[in-house]
Amino acid sequence: MAYTDFLKQQCYIDGKWCDADSGATLDVTDPGTGKTLGTVPKMGADETLRAIDAAEAALPAWRAKTAGERAKILRKLYELMIEAQDDLGELLSREQGKPLAEGKGEIAYGASFIEWFGEEAKRAYGDTIPGHASDRRIVVIKQPVGVVGAITPWNFPNAMITRKLGPALAAGCTMVIKPASATPYSALAIAALCEKAGIPAGVVNVVTGSAGQIGSTLTGSPKVAKITFTGSTEIGRQLLKESAETVKKCSMELGGNAPFLVFDDADVDAAIEGAMISKFRNGGQTCVCTNRFYVQDGVYDEFVEKLAARVKAMKVGYGLDEGTEVGPLIDEKAVEKVEEHLKDAVDGGATVLAGGSRNERGGSFFNPTVIAGVKPDMKLASEETFGPLAGVIRFTDEADAVAMANDTEFGLASYFYARDLSRVWRVAEALEAGMVGINTGLISTEVAPFGGVKQSGLGREGSHYGLDDYMELKYLCMGVQ
Ligand code: ADP
């Protein structure tokens, strides 16, 4: 097998591979070479409506299966993904640009949601509640929400789908998926594996094409019970507005602006390790990537010096080349955003300690960068950079640092390094974020609830809480004569 065996250039609707009604296509580009990898159909409202109808038609039989039956099929899907890990990882790296090791890692991470939720399906327990009257009994059951519309981003083309698909299928829901146009092949490869795993026609549908048309058809359809979205806060807000018309359930995993705090009592070397992984994974293009560093006076100089040394040694290259640690950014616009934040900081007096320019390879390659002397009012402290730019701000007082960390409308991930136990509790409780990494820069796992507070989103993905987002509670009140 090779990655080309998983490169599907058609959409998957109602168990059939199909083209757009108009025959129109979109090109998909390898951001590392600028060359076209292939095309996908440019679909719109009509094809989306057909996909929704297929998902609706497939729902009764899929939700009627026992959780154990669905779990067996999900287990099969998990095994197929792991068997194909190398090829799927390569396909992902080619369309997204991330280093191959990260691409393969994402497949394992993505597959873990399928495995986890298949197992978890069997534990979607309800509740019995002592009745409020002697002639009444109360039981609470959980049922699938129904047809789910999923809209997913390009930064994790596999895992951002599977952590929606896993719980949706486990719960007994059916799905229409609209992947990002930059990275549709990983989504279509998942559809191919769903077919191979024996998931019935209509249960999973993948539609590529016009984001606006497909999105508004999903949000506008009364047949779609839920929208699950990962992407920017701006588009999330729009989808929430559109979904209000038919009062859909919504899960929104939106933008972040993660702070990373290093206190005087921290293990600085460990903090550097955490900083590297939380800032530079996927070239800084994850919603939980550190966006701003706050480092206390006593360790500031040591931290910036060590961070700059590590970053200077990073290897920028094509995702599939041996030893590459930082691949290209997704496109030119992404590079321009990094440049804008860098210029704003340097104009305001910040100092470049590593990188600071585009890479000699051209295209959308940018050198990983460290800048010191950043001020809290600079752009990179308030807007998500989504690139390999680490800006370090100095602080003196713990309460001031926490206040600066919280001074944002976002509240997804946050990180801090400290060893004093009381401080660890104080800061962990005070940070306004859905997730806090304490003495670690890597927090993503299928077993824990991932999600944000404030304008970073609604709902949680992963863990048993993630299954609840795809289920409705139904309360049964029984009279006993
Ligand atoms: P990012 O590009 O930072 O991942 P976006 O919010 O722009 O964030 O994109 C995330 C997903 O939302 C992609 O699949 C994109 O195609 C989709 N999208 C963009 N605009 C719309 C829209 N108007 N309606 C529905 N989906 C959209």
UniProtKB/TrEMBL annotation:
The record's section on InterPro entries has:
Ald_DH/histidinol_DH (IPR016161), Ald_DH_C (IPR016163), Ald_DH_CS_CYS (IPR016160), Ald_DH_CS_GLU (IPR029510), Ald_DH_N (IPR016162), Aldehyde_DH_dom (IPR015590), Aldehyde_DH_Superfamily (IPR050740), Succ_semiAld_DH (IPR010102)
**Pfam families the record matches:** Aldedh
- What PROSITE patterns is this protein classified in? ALDEHYDE_DEHYDR_CYS, ALDEHYDE_DEHYDR_GLU
Q: Which GO terms are recorded in the biological process aspect for this UniProt protein?
A: gamma-aminobutyric acid catabolic process
Can the keyword Transmembrane be found in this entry's annotation?
no
* Keyword Metal-binding in record: no
Q: Which residues form the Aldehyde dehydrogenase domain?
A: 17-475
Q: Offer a single GO CC term for the protein.
A: cytosol
List, from the UniProt record, the residues annotated as the active site of this protein: 253
Q: Which UniProt keywords apply?
A: Oxidoreductase
What are the GO MF terms of this UniProt record?
succinate-semialdehyde dehydrogenase (NAD+) activity
Q: What family is reported?
A: Belongs to the aldehyde dehydrogenase family.
Entries under NCBIfam families matching the protein: SSADH
Task: Give the matching PANTHER family.
Answer: SUCCINATE-SEMIALDEHYDE DEHYDROGENASE, MITOCHONDRIAL
Protein name as annotated:
NAD-dependent succinate-semialdehyde dehydrogenase
Q: Which organism is it from?
A: Novosphingobium aureum
